[in-house]
Design a protein that fits this description.
Elements: H1 2-22, E1 26-32, H2 38-48, E2 54-59, E3 64-70, H3 76-85, E4 93-94, H4 97-101, E5 116-117, H5 144-158, H6 162-177, H7 186-207, H8 212-231, E6 239-244, H9 247-250, E7 253-257, E8 276-281
Parallel strand pairs: 4-5
Antiparallel strand pairs: 1-3, 2-3, 6-7, 6-8
Helix pairs in contact: 2-3, 2-5, 5-6, 5-8, 6-7, 7-8
Length: 282
């Protein structure tokens, strides 16, 4: 047990060091960000993350986020706006009422109303120029609500929050039923027909329990079928297929993530950064 703890500490230190090295022109600032639980931490850090450009580490006790960013490609103001748009008031921006209302009950923090409204809609938000042409609007993805609900389960399991995972799984069950199959591409339609019942089965079981261990068992097979569906068609945004070698008693398990940074849904805070990206779907 002692050796495992030492190994975990080394992994976390190496991960932090490598992440810092990847961000050039790095500036680190500490800022106040409202939140209340481990699920908030996962969402705040996800909102702030942009590969090789920005990242954050939010402290649940102090409500302070340590934000590191490339000062030539973005700014603290831009990052705090993204965090607000995810539902979290901070020292510069207030979250839109709709974004705050969509947070789970455990994430509802006390609002002070002292910041400026973050009234820029996520779709209109512009990053600092990176030398690439502006991205064109992606075509509507009929499976986007399914993937978003899946990500919600993943974030809840990262936070080891069984209640939130159950709620997000209920959203996934609803999203699966509402998929318009006639809008799917030929290959994706064929895969969807094969895995739809299994997706619904696992999502339904996750929604019916608050036991995180049982939820993680079903999340493993849920993730395998989600991978098949997403791989069958080019997603609008990159999807990272990630692997934890220690899950399922050493047999290993996979999951999908919207960010390349490892946030392990099978162990949460116990081994948050255990794993690696094995494939990028795009």
């Amino acid at each position: 047990m002692k050796s495992i703890k030492i190994w975990m500490a080394v992994v976390l230190l190496l991960s932090a060091a490598l992440s810092q090295a990847a961000i050039k022109n790095a500036v680190t600032e500490n800022v106040k960000v409202n939140g209340s639980c481990a699920l908030c931490k996962a969402r705040i850090e996800s909102a702030a993350f942009e590969k090789n450009i920005s990242e954050a580490n939010w402290n649940q006790e102090t409500k302070v986020a340590s934000v590191t960013y490339d000062s030539k490609k973005t700014s603290l103001d831009a990052i705090l706006k993204k965090i607000a748009l995810a539902g979290f008031d901070n020292q510069t921006y207030l979250a839109p009422d709709k974004a705050y209302a969509e947070l789970e009950a455990c994430c509802r923090y006390e609002r002070t109303g002292k910041s400026e409204p973050a009234d820029v809609k996520p779709a209109a938000h512009e990053h600092y120029a990176t030398g690439n042409a502006a991205a064109q609007p992606a075509e509507a993805d009929p499976l986007k609500p399914v993937l978003e609900a899946y990500y919600g389960i993943k974030d809840a399991l990262v936070a080891s929050d069984g209640n939130a995972a159950s709620l997000k799984a209920a959203s996934l069950v609803k999203a699966i039923k509402e998929v318009k199959m006639n809008e799917l591409g030929h290959e994706q339609h064929n895969v969807w027909m094969k895995v739809m019942k299994d997706l619904d089965f696992d999502a339904d079981h996750i929604s019916e329990t608050k036991d995180v261990g049982h939820q993680r068992d079903h999340f493993s097979s849920l993730s395998e079928n989600m991978y098949k569906v997403i791989k069958a068609a080019k997603p609008a945004e990159p999807v990272y297929y990630q692997h934890c070698p220690m899950a399922k008693e050493g047999k290993g398990a996979n999951w999908l993530s919207r960010i390349p940074a490892i946030k392990n849904p099978y162990y949460g805070a116990q081994m948050l950064n255990c794993g690696k990206t094995t494939e990028t779907l795009k």
